[in-house]
């Protein structure tokens, strides 16, 4: 009977681990067949209308396509793509929902159902067409190189970058164009365009390749920059910006094409969308002092503290359970604890965050980014806390346990009143280090669009066209948070030593 129970427990655990992978595999294998039957079974448009929202994924660091501005103390998404998204949602009769994340995460979010479409100045390359469907082109522009103005005479063409490093956003057509058409140049890819501009100004890269409107936007708002036409050769079918949809979402793609046709018919891009984006960019350049964006940093601190506090509590409880499982005599529970701890400690936290959000999130569609971030950070913290607690328990002399048991205490009472209290005193500094590390590591959740401090910093960078100043403020904020926590932990450590 005991063996049967252990087998059932093992099967249950295996199902919990395998289910997300199975769901993703099923989704991948079914994509080819769904494409064949899209004409008869496609209900993409119907689903959007039934839920009443159009979830649009974008990377809001790409003016004038999409960027942020402050209106009445609130963060607003503005730009050409935002206007197109608003019109598309209005034409469908649904509410628009914006999901801001790294550009190189957008296709994953689309394929796992976290968003309905990508409207982020995405080029419809042949490689991308294998995974997603694209609408018609809604805006075309050339590829420009942004350089430091002082290097104006040094760099005059793409050939002049031989032996130099040229930057481009990860996952973009520009990244591949540098590798293919910049002879002797090395490509440097980063997730955010703001960080590439910082790299340019600090001499890490000699130039940054981007869309013409975006290049001109940065130059207009930064007198130390200069832009010129790269004259790269681009396939006419791959250039320009288009909306991206899940493979087989024919009905939704056709609806987007109707919206694009209406935009072109009314000439809304030249008459309204581009001028309005330029207006917001001018406003940002006039009111781009760091003090005016204090609400961004305040909101980031709030989310960072929420993630840290909740993750600390969950991670501590999970760590105790895992430590006791590993120290116990039950081979199955011991094996599970060891496997979990080694697996979590052997994989990067960023990968874990993205797997929880995009992997498990593919099964649980309603899983919010904040919840996914907290779950991932908590599970990661639990593995490290478990090892800290285990080392603390093992540091207690066996005689303490034997003495407690000889006095008639049960194993539970022995751990509760004798072992754990002494172990906590021994491991308090190590636990403190883990908690402090957690505050800093929580910044990783910004990759899935959680509005923590790092995420808000990136918004300030894109809104002010300044790269270093927001980072300097963020460093100070993180230092204040960790220093305050460190002092608090030291206070309680001193109290415990005197008890």
UniProtKB/TrEMBL annotation:
This is ABC transporter permease. Gene3D superfamilies: MetI-like (1.10.3720.10), Periplasmic binding protein-like II (3.40.190.10). GO terms for biological process: amino acid transport. SMART domains: PBPb (SM00062). One of its GO terms (molecular function) is transmembrane transporter activity. It is a multi-pass membrane protein. GO terms for cellular component: ATP-binding cassette (ABC) transporter complex. Residues 301-486 form the ABC transmembrane type-1 domain. Residues 1-22 form the signal peptide. Keywords: Amino-acid transport, Cell membrane, Membrane, Plasmid, Signal, Transmembrane, Transmembrane helix, Transport. NCBIfam families: HEQRo_perm_3TM. The chain crosses the membrane at residues 303-325, 366-386, 468-486. It comes from Ligilactobacillus salivarius. SUPFAM superfamilies: MetI-like, Periplasmic binding protein-like II. It is found in: Cell membrane. The keyword Membrane applies.
